[in-house]
C-alpha cells in the first residue's frame, strides 16, 4: 500500500530544479559584463543575424567603418569605432548586438 505524499517529499523534488535554474541565471548574469563592449574602446565586435553570410556581414560593417578582423562565426565582424555614432550606424545597417572584441573575435581571422 502506498502512503500519501507529504509536503517534504514534494519540496525535495522541486529543490534541485530551483537550484539548477538559479545557477543558470547567476552564470548568465555574471557573463554579461564580460561580453559587453568596453566604453570608449576603439574596436567592437559586431554580431549580425546568424543567417547572414560572412560576405554580407563584412559588407554591412565595411559600409560603416573599417573592418579589423572576422570572428570565429561568419556573422561576427570586429570593426574600428572611429566616431561617436558608429554603433548607431552599425545597428541601422543590421547589427543585432555588440560585444567586447576580445570575446567576439575568439578564433578570429585577421583582415589587416
Please, could you describe this protein's structure?
By secondary structure, the chain is of the alpha+beta class. It has a domain at 43-110. Helices cover 46% and strands 17% of the residues. It has four helices and five strands, in the order αβαββαβαβ. The protein has helices at 7-35, 54-64, 86-92, 101-104, and strands at 43-47, 67-70, 76-80, 97-99, 109-110. A five-stranded antiparallel sheet has the order 4-1-3-2-5. It is elongated. It starts with 6 loop residues before the first helix and ends with a strand.
Reconstruct the topology from this structure.
Blueprint: H1 7-35, E1 43-47, H2 54-64, E2 67-70, E3 76-80, H3 86-92, E4 97-99, H4 101-104, E5 109-110
State the gist of this model.
The chain is α+β, with helices and mostly antiparallel strands and 112 residues long. The protein is built from four helices and five strands, in the order H-E-H-E-E-H-E-H-E.
Mean of residue pLDDT? Answer: 76
Low-pLDDT stretches are: none
Secondary structure category = alpha+beta
User: How far is the N terminus from the C terminus?
Assistant: 75 Å
Report the strand count: 5
How many DSSP H or I helices? 4
Major sheet summary line: 5 strands, antiparallel
Pattern of helices and strands: HEHEEHEHE
The helicity comes to 40-55%
How much of the sequence lies in strands comes to 15-25%
Coarse shape: elongated
Q: Provide the gyration radius in Å.
A: 21 Å
Strand order of the largest sheet: 4-1-3-2-5
